[in-house]
Every structure is written in C-alpha cells, then in structure tokens.
C-alpha cells in the first residue's frame, strides 16, 4: 500500500514538468486515487435488531470534468468494514463494501469579488454491502443495497495566496479551495432481505440472495466538506469529511446506518 501511494506522489511531483510554460485548458479533467477511513454504525432490524458500531476502510478511483459552467464526476470505491456489539455476548459482523455514483451540476451563481461559486444539479450515490455474521443462523450472510438520486448543492470558495518569497519573481499565487456540499434526497431505491433471521427459509443451504425485495422511499441525507490544495502544475491534494445517513422505509427489515468518514485523494490533471 505504501509503495502504491508513493508511486502516485511521484507522479504528482514529476507531471508538472510536462506542462510548464504551456497554457492550460479552461476545462480541466482530473483522475483521482482515494483512500477512506471512517466510523460507521448500522442496525438491520430484519436480521439483527441491535446497533453495531465499527470501522470502515475503502480505496477508490474518481474522474472529474470541470467546465466553465458544467461539471461532471464519477466515482467508485471498494473496501471492508468491521463491526461488533456487546449484548450478553460479543457479536461481530464483517462487511465487504462497494460505493459508487457521481454528479452532474451547473454553475448558477458566482461572486468574483469574493471568489465564491454555487453549483446545483443532481448526484447519484449508492452502496452495496455483503455482510457476514456467523451468529445469525440462516442469515449468517446477507446483501443490502441502497441507491439514491439527490438534489445536489455545492458552495465553493477559492483562496489564492501570494507567495512572500520575493526572490521568486513572477511566482503564481498558491491556490486553495474550500467547498461544502449538501445532498437532499429525491428518490431512494433499496434492495433488502425480506425475512427475519429466525425464519429458516434455506432448507439447510444458506443463500444470501434467495429472499430479497426492492423497496422505494425512506430517508437519505449526505454532506461533504472538502479542502483542495493545488500544485503549480494543476495537480492537487484533496481532504474530505463525509457524512452519510440512511433509513429505509418502516418495516420488520428496516435498515439504519450512519457514516462519518475522512477521505484523502491524490488528484492528477489529465490535460
């Protein structure tokens, strides 16, 4: 893993030479490698009506196009989660996690004197968990997936600081960006188990996908606070705090979860 990230740090440092002295396009494209770590809690009433707390670790890739008016992005992450709860005994639940989505947004407002920009649009974000919990009898493994179409809102503040080293004549100001993103739900589709774990539908052969149903509705909220530091060549380092909450429709198989995560990204400009 250390070698993996060291390679991309080298790319961030060497790539600038490719574009020094050249005019950069006004519509940059970025490829990004990300690492995410967070605290997570979930309650799956259908298979285990108790609250599990644990840790989530993920790695991913992201593509972003930033035009003068329109911006688009797509992302994919994969990782693992480790959860436990103490209730008369210690119960453990492990997950393999996949998260995916993207946004399409348009610039609606800009204040040049304050370097502020507002973008609005839509974001799609979903996650799928493959869960393992040996203490849950026939439901020792399971799959759940929640996918949401959001109304996407983003307010970004560009910060540019002039370098104080006067020996560097003509040095460009360093660029920093601080952005807050709020995503409000339009519609959510969930794929959940439609059985309680005490019901043995397996005939002795567990099948985590045998008895699942699609459900519409529920509550999903998401926000992100992002800081980006841009290198002279247009590459960047990104740090994001990511909050995500979901609650599926009321029922015996209701799923609740909340994530607090920190994400780090190595951002490479492609043009």
List keywords for this structure.
11 strands; Lipocalin; single chain; 65% strand; mainly beta; 271 residues
Helix-strand blueprint:
Elements lengths: L1 H13 L1 H4 L9 E16 L3 E19 L3 E17 L3 E22 L4 E17 L8 E21 L12 E20 L18 E5 L2 E12 L5 E12 L7 E15 L2
Antiparallel strand pairs: 1-2, 1-11, 2-3, 3-4, 4-5, 5-6, 6-7, 7-8, 7-9, 9-10, 10-11
Tell me what you see in this structure:
The chain has helices at residues 2-14, 16-19; strands at 29-44, 48-66, 70-86, 90-111, 116-132, 141-161, 174-193, 212-216, 219-230, 236-247, 255-269. With 271 residues, it is mainly β. The protein is 6% helix and 65% strand. Strands 1-2-3-4-5-6-7-9-10-11 form a ten-stranded antiparallel barrel. The protein is built from two helices and eleven strands, in the order ααβββββββββββ. A hairpin with an 8-residue loop joins β5 (116-132) and β6 (141-161). It is elongated and about 60 Å long. The chain has a single domain, classed as OPCA outer membrane adhesin/invasin (Lipocalin, Beta Barrel).
């Amino acid at each position: 893993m250390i070698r993996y990230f060291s390679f991309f740090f080298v790319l961030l440092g060497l790539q600038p030479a490719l574009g020094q002295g050249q005019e950069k396009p006004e519509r940059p494209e970025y490829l990004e490698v990300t690492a995410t770590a967070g605290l997570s809690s979930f309650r799956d009433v259908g298979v285990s009506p108790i609250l599990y707390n644990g840790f989530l670790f993920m790695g991913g890739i992201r593509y972003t196009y930033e035009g003068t008016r329109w911006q688009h992005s797509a992302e994919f992450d994969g990782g693992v989660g480790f959860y436990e709860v103490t209730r008369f005994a210690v119960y453990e639940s492990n997950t393999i996690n996949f998260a995916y989505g993207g946004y399409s947004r348009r610039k609606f407002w800009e204040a040049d004197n304050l370097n502020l920009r507002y973008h609005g649009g839509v974001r799609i974000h979903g996650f799928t968990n493959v869960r393992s919990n040996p203490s849950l009898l026939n439901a020792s493994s399971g799959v759940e997936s929640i996918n949401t179409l959001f109304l996407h809102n983003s307010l970004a503040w560009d910060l540019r600081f002039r370098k104080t080293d006067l020996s560097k004549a003509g040095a460009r100001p360093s660029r920093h960006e601080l952005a807050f993103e709020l995503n409000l739900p339009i519609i959510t589709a969930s794929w959940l188990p439609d059985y309680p774990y005490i019901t043995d539908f397996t005939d002795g052969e567990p099948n985590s996908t045998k008895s699942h149903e699609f459900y519409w509705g529920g509550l999903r909220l998401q926000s992100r606070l992002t800081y980006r530091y841009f290198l002279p060549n247009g590459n960047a380092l990104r740090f994001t705090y990511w909050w995500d909450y979901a609650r599926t429709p009321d029922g015996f198989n209701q799923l609740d979860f909340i994530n607090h995560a920190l994400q780090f990204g190595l951002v490479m400009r492609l043009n």
